[in-house]
Amino acid sequence: MMRRNYTSALAEAVRRRNLWILVALLLGVSNLLLAGGLLSRLGVAEKTIVTPPALHKPFSVQGEEVSPEYLEQMAPWFAGLALTYNPDNIDYQVRQFLSYADPRAYGELAARLESDAEKVRRNQMSSVFHAREVRIRGQLVAVTGTLMTLVASKSTGQREATFLIEFNYRNGRLTVRRFLEVQSDDPFAAGTVAAGRRS
Q1: Spatial separation of the C-alpha atoms in residues 49 and 94, rounded to whole Å
Q2: pTM for this structure?
Q3: Co-location of 169 and 125 in the same domain
Q4: Does the residue 100 lie in any domain?
Q5: 29 with 76, same domain?
Q6: Overall number of domains in the chain
Q7: Are strands 47-50 and 59-62 parallel, antiparallel or unpaired?
Q8: pLDDT by residue (tens digit) across 63-115?
Q9: Residue 184 forms part of a structural domain
Q10: d(Cα 12, Cα 14) in Å, to the nearest integer?
Q11: Which candidate, 31, 68, 30, 61, places its Cα nearest to that of 46?
C-alpha cells in the first residue's frame, strides 16, 4: 500500500515537472520570437501620421524628420508668436517662443528677444504680422507677410517682410534654431540674412 502511494506521488511529481518544463519551453520560445522581432525592427524608424485639431493638414513624423506640411503650418504660428505683440503680452510671447528654442541657440535667441521686449515696453510698441506665403527648403522655412507696427497707438506704417526660420526636430520635439528677417527675393541664398531683427 505504501509503495503504491509513493509510486503514485512520484508519478504526480514527474507529471508536474514535465508540465513546468513545457511551460518554461513555451515561454523561452516566445521570448526568442519577441527578441527576433525587436532585432528585425532595429534601424527602422516608426512613421506616425498626425492630424491635430489646431492644424489643417495631416503631416508625418519619421525618426528625426518631419514632413514639409508640418513645417508649413508651424512656421506662421512661430512668426505670429514672435511678431504679433503689445506691451501687455510681450513677456508671455517671449516665454512661449523661447519654450521652443533649440538648446544650442537658446542663449542667443533669449538675449535678442528679451532686449526687443524691453524696447517694446519702453516705447509702448505693438506689432501685427499676417503671413501670406510660406516657402520651405529642408528645415528652413521662409514666411512672407505684412508687418504692421504701432508706437503709442499710432501706426508707423506697414511693410512686406520675409522671415527665415530654421527648425530642428529631435526626440519628438520641434525647436527653433534661428529666426531672422531676410532682405532678398531668395531667402535661402547664402549671405542674405540680415542682422537678426524681429521687426
Answers
A1: 30
A2: 0.66
A3: yes
A4: yes
A5: no
A6: 2
A7: antiparallel
A8: 777 888 888 888 998 999 999 999 999 999 999 999 999 999 999 999 999 99
A9: yes
A10: 5
A11: 61
